[in-house]
Amino acid sequence: MKRWAVAGAVVLATLGVASTAGAEKPANETFICNGQETTFFVHGRVGVLDGQNYLAYNIEVSGSFDPSAPGEPTQMFEDTQWTSAKKTGGLQCSAHEVTVTAEGTETFDISFNALPTGKP
Asked: 52-67 and 91-101: which strand pairing?
């Protein structure tokens, strides 16, 4: 269970869900946004695309960890952050990630909408 908690925290930190401003190092993250592969330079909830800042809203993360050890149950994870009926539109983004290690298989599905902040 501890491994799953760490894995979930890593994914959430990538999207800024579990991080505070400045806590995570900026990184390039690729999602499918409005049907196209889109790479943001991400720092917390802010992503930069073509010189424009975007802020992520309505973030939904779900996933599972299926341990390789026989008899160990699959662990599920689900979280929603920064939901707002008034903050919709913009870019509709998602990603599906699967990581297989000797310890087991981690699967994550992420979706959110990204709105331009008006600041370059």
From this structure: unpaired
